[in-house]
Amino acid sequence: MTTKPLSIRLLFSLLSLFVAVSGIAKVSLQEGGEELMTIYAGEEDPDSKIDENAEIIFIEVWSPLLKTAEGIKLGMTISQAEKTIGDLREIFMSEIESREFASFTDQPSGMTFRVTHDRGSAGKYRGDTMTTTRYTPGATILSIEVSGSDVMQDGSIGGIMIEATEPEVLAIAEKEEMGNPFKGKDEMREAFGQAVQPWLFPDAGISIDMISDEIGGPKTVLSIAAKAGSKAATGKDISMGAQKADVIKAYADYRTEKEEMSIFPEEDDVHLVGSIYGGMIFTFEKGGLAKIFLGVAAE
């Protein structure tokens, strides 16, 4: 499965499958009466004619007949998937129908794995928490969602990525000679329902928000920011002082929610990659890059 943008017409030509429209403005692709996948191209009216030239926003695969380039397919257990796309990083349970989604350390960018268990939840949760790093033996992959290259999955600043663990952050900080972090107050944040603690690396010009299920619990990276003067570069080798055209070119493969640009003041020179709900924000001053933010900007 590809993570590059496709049009509905191109997908039809590649698959040559029966097409039907569901009641929620998605298109169901079937073969021999079996649903292979559903696709969504941003069309809100399920009764309108399908725009075959519309760019697909995401594809959700529902058939074990299809698999990723790495060989991941529906029905595969989490333990089997770990052998191919890395250790389980986290299982998250959504508030909508208690759906569960798993992420792995080496998974392809832009893919989401929905998981399930036939005798309960796929994840082993503590108390009222909605995230866990443990899973129930026998938990399997229920569906695979492909949404294109995801800067939240493979973006980085100074080599530090979203969801990096405390040991991973400290190891990078030592390697890059960032100095010891100044750790702020660890406190519960209502917007997340979890504890957030700021870590500051003044000498490196980097600040990180670390998140955990409870105060004092094991933490991972929630967001990262670098300010003017920092020598840290992004994973695309963009650093302070870069020109806006170079930033746009470097991140051209990532989908951007352009309508969300309206939240920024008109006088700010900003380039958004991804979304304010998960993406990178590049801020320019006098034509040069002056600040980089990676994470969730809207709470």
Polypeptide structure, described:
This protein is mainly β. The chain folds into 2 domains: 8-146, Sandwich (protein yfey like fold); 151-295. The protein is built from 5 helices and 19 strands. It has helices at residues 8-15, 78-85, 151-154, 166-175, 244-250, and strands spanning 18-21, 27-31, 34-40, 58-61, 88-93, 100-104, 111-116, 131-132, 140-146, 156-157, 160-161, 182-183, 187-189, 194-201, 206-212, 220-227, 269-275, 278-285, 288-295. Strands 1-2-3-4-9-7-6-5-8 form a 9-stranded antiparallel sheet. Strands 12, 13, 14, 15, 16, 17, 18 and 19 form an 8-stranded antiparallel sheet that branches. A two-stranded antiparallel sheet has the order 10-11. Strand 13 and strand 14 form a beta hairpin. The longest helix is centred in the middle third of the chain and has 10 residues, at 166-175. The chain is globular and about 60 Å long. It starts with 7 loop residues before the first helix and ends with a strand. The model is unreliable at 1-24 (pLDDT under 50).
Enumerate the strands of the largest sheet in spatial order, edge to edge or round the barrel: 1-2-3-4-9-7-6-5-8
Q: What's the tally of helices? A: 5
By helix and strand content, what is the structural category?
mainly beta
Number of domains: 2
Order of helices and strands: HEEEEHEEEEEHEEHEEEEEHEEE
Main sheet specs: 9 strands, antiparallel
Count of beta strands: 19
Low-confidence stretches: 1-24
Approximate shape: globular
**What fraction of the residues are assigned to beta strands by DSSP?**
25-35%
In helices, the fraction of residues equals 10-25%
What is the distance, rounded to the nearest whole angstrom, between the alpha carbons of the first and last residues?
Answer: 32 Å
Rg over CA atoms: 21 Å
Mean pLDDT: 85
